[in-house]
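Homework help board

Subject: predicted structure for assignment chain

Our instructor gave us this sequence and asked us to write out the predicted structure in token form, then describe one feature. I got the tokens but I'm not sure how to describe them. Can anyone check?
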Amino acid sequence: ALAGFALSARAQELPRSWIDPDTGHRIVQLSTDPGSACLYFTQYAYTAGGTKLLMTTPQGIDLVTLNTGAIERVYQGRSERVLQTGRKTGAIFYAKDGLLYALDPVTRQSRQVAKAPPGGSFLSVNSDETLAAGTLTEGSSNSRSAAAAPAPIPAGAVQKGRDNYPDKHDMMDRRLAEHLPMTLFTVNLQTGEYKELLHTTDWLGHVQFSPTAPLQLMYCHEGRQWKLDRVWLIQADGRSSPMLVHQRTMKMEIAVHEYWSNDGQWIWYDLQTPLAEDFWVAGYNVTTGKRI
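My token output:
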């Protein structure tokens, strides 16, 4: 989906479809409502056998049929966060007011499936839709407001996404230095059982369940990537210890932008050895331990 244009007038100037002269690829604009956006690339966003793509809009949640471009509004209203579509049922999971809901895209009916602990946020649902994982932070952060509310985009400027704003790097340094206690947790969507998997003062983020293994959970240590070992695995059984996926071997090396392969066998990530010099796509096979 093409999204994030600062000015709707600019979006209206573009054709809905064109052939890129350099690659020969056909480019298709899927969104029509200004402010529409796809989910982050680590969040599964397909339903109806992969034929429909989830989009968020200022008014609610839409599904676009990829082969026709037809758009349907399946949820009207604001949500705090849309997590993903379920890999088992195709339900759309979203959080609002500390509660997790599953939205049936066919009937357009939502049902409450879990409640987050005070201060907690849901981030991922597992492959068989029995567990939701999230994090909670104890204490207050002087950096959170900067992370949650980046500076406004100047009038007439082209918006490059809310992940890029002038104070981001300084905010990350401040937040990392605070060492606030955090908890990685799960809630059972069938029984409501709450389980704490990890207690740490590291800054946790990018919580992602495996697409195929219901108890396999990946997460990261947030912060400036050359200051920490980022990519980690843990089993959501409440008894396992974290496992570091990639150990850095040189000064200024980074491993970042981690995501699962669709078959759940590989964790892929952006590896730079060192930062901004040698660029790799690196992989770790969670079954065999093989590295590429």
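Reply (TA_rk): Your tokens look well-formed. For the description, you could write something like this. Residues 168-178 form the longest helix (11 residues). That's the kind of observation they're looking for.
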